[in-house]
Amino acid sequence: SERKDVNGNDREVVPMEQYKEENEKKKEYLKRYHVAELAEKEIQEEIDDLRMNKMFPALIQDGMPHGSSCMDLSEYAAQLDELLTELKDQMEQRIRIRREITQRIEAMQDETEKTVLRLRYIHWLQWEQIAERMGYGWTQVHRIHGRALTNFKME
To answer: DSSP alpha helices (H): ranges in 3-69?
Structure first.
């Protein structure tokens, strides 16, 4: 069945359970931004550590004997390069996730809805902080968030 939305456009009536399920999927999708951001920081630390190990291989303090021949060091450097390449690929994958989510939020029509989603899922603010920053009450922010989720497109 169909109903009119606030703008007078036809819209499909979705059963409440299906609506809640879809919104939960959208929230999980949006939360991937924060997860990707945390992973990026971890990967960057790993990259920084590897670069230090590559620059100063004799300073590795792991208690294991390390060869000092040229061949050992060149093999070691080659393995570090390979690992760095893999880590950079992982980093790029996380950046793509964040870019995709940002673009999908940006594609929305309503600026207020976009702001709520950005503050909640990109800046990772608490509801109270969002309400204070936007000058709305807590319940109003929740209503806007509900509308935003309804209007947010995952594809």
So the answer is: 16-55
Angle among Cα 84, 85, 88 to the nearest 5 degrees reads 85
Residue 12 phi/psi, 5-degree rounding, is -75, 140
Q: Work out whether the CA dihedral 72, 73, 74, 75 comes out positive or negative.
A: positive
Kindly report the backbone phi and psi dihedral angles of residue 8, in degrees, each rounded to the nearest multiple of 5, phi listed first.
Answer: 85, 5
Q: What is the C-alpha separation between 140 and 64, in angstroms, rounded?
A: 60
Three-state secondary structure call for residue 59 = helix
Evaluate if pTM is beyond 0.85.
no
* Residue 46 burial (10 A CB sphere; 0-12, 13-18, 19+): middle
Q: φ, ψ for residue 147 (rounded to 5)?
A: -65, -40
Query: Is pLDDT of 144 > 70?
Result: yes
CB 105 within 8 A of CB 98: no
